[in-house]
Amino acid sequence: MRVRVLAGVALLTTLTLAAGPATAAAPTASGHAPSADAGLRAFADRAGLRVGTAVDMAALAGDPAYRTAVAHEFSTVTAENVMKWESTEPQRGVHDWAAADRLVDFARAHRQLVRGHTLVWHNQNPAWVNEQDLTPAQLRAALRRHIVDEVSHFRGRVWHWDVVNEIFNDDGTWRDTIWLRNLGPGYVADAFRWAHQADPRATLFLNDYNNEGLNAKTDAYYALVKQLRAAGVPVQGYGVQGHLAVQYGVPGDVLTNLRRFEQLGLRTAFTEVDVRMPLPADPIKVQAQAQGFTTLLQACLLADRCVSYTLWGFTDRYSWVPGVFDGEGSATPFDENLAPKPAYAALRDTLALAGR
Ligand code: G3I
């Protein structure tokens, strides 16, 4: 779709660029571009991309301005926490889908797709999932049950699943988790097969952080995906979380990395983008932040099969960052008062250029 749009308006793009810097409101071949306040999703639609956010369910219920912005700005949503195993099955065999169902219903009402996050992780598992009480065989059965139950519950209503999350260390070795220790690395292939059986139409992703560019971790993913695809395992997407920090910059080879996974037959997606900074903010950090957001967005728009770009929260009012990184924050495109920062305009204008 994106390719078709771009090819169709090549001449117009040339004219627009010659006329000076683009603004969000410039006309396009198929009429007029969305007005500057139309929301990111309007611009993303024209660019053939889905744009999303992680959603904090307490905020969605209790903060009308937050709720309005989620609906207005985004064409996909991801549950920040409520689809994780500790939320969906707090006690063995006792499911609680209520919060996750509310998100899926919200998405449907606002014509949004849902990214399911996440089925297999080393964090936020229920307390009853532990190595003291369960044997390896019981852990395997519990994991299978969990995946089949959750994917079946949302069958037909979840677009992408982050099937396995953060399975490698930054040096490319396997992360030491309850799953690796008890099931061995074959748990990854099993998880994809079980998820695929439960919903053959959902697109199934690997997902991680520090996997934007070429490095030891992404080499490990590349080797694993090759092996899984050769074995017929239904791994279909490579998710790049995109948790950046202005003090560390952005790798220069993001597009090259996306392309090598696309060449293995995968779709790609940015799944959790934010760009934190040491506080207090200043104009250079704010500018670097805008560049961080747009560098990843540009890579997605330049790639052939990058299908979505998701923010890990869109407002500093609810961001996870200050609670985890001491002295850092301001990581999202909207401040605590839901006022847009320069990063917001940068994202919107990049999408506007791609949609011409
Ligand atoms: O639900 C409890 C609540 O009952 C309790 O009173 C409160 C007290 O601390 O904690 C609440 O749980 C918190 C949970 O979020 C829900 O709000 C946890 O403490 C807190 O640790 C947890 O943090 C989440 C984190 O994953 C856990 O690892 C963040 O919100 C969430 O943004 C973050 O998301 C992850 C992605 O899933 C994977 N990639 C990295 C990303 C950022 O860490």
UniProtKB/TrEMBL annotation:
GO biological process: xylan catabolic process
UniProt keyword Signal, yes or no: yes
EC class (word): hydrolase
Domain GH10: 33-350
EC number: 3.2.1.8
Substrates-to-products reaction catalysed: Endohydrolysis of (1->4)-beta-D-xylosidic linkages in xylans
Gene Ontology MF terms in the entry: endo-1,4-beta-xylanase activity
Signal peptide: 1-24
InterPro entries referenced in this protein's UniProt entry, alphabetically: GH (IPR017853), GH10 (IPR044846), GH10_dom (IPR001000)
Keywords: Carbohydrate metabolism, Glycosidase, Hydrolase, Polysaccharide degradation, Signal, Xylan degradation
Domain of life per record: Bacteria
Coiled coil: none
Pfam families: Glyco_hydro_10 (PF00331)
PANTHER family associated with the record: BETA-XYLANASE (PTHR31490:SF88), GLYCOSYL HYDROLASE (PTHR31490)
UniProt record similarity statement: Belongs to the glycosyl hydrolase 10 (cellulase F) family.
Protein name per UniProt: Beta-xylanase
Record gene name: xynA_3
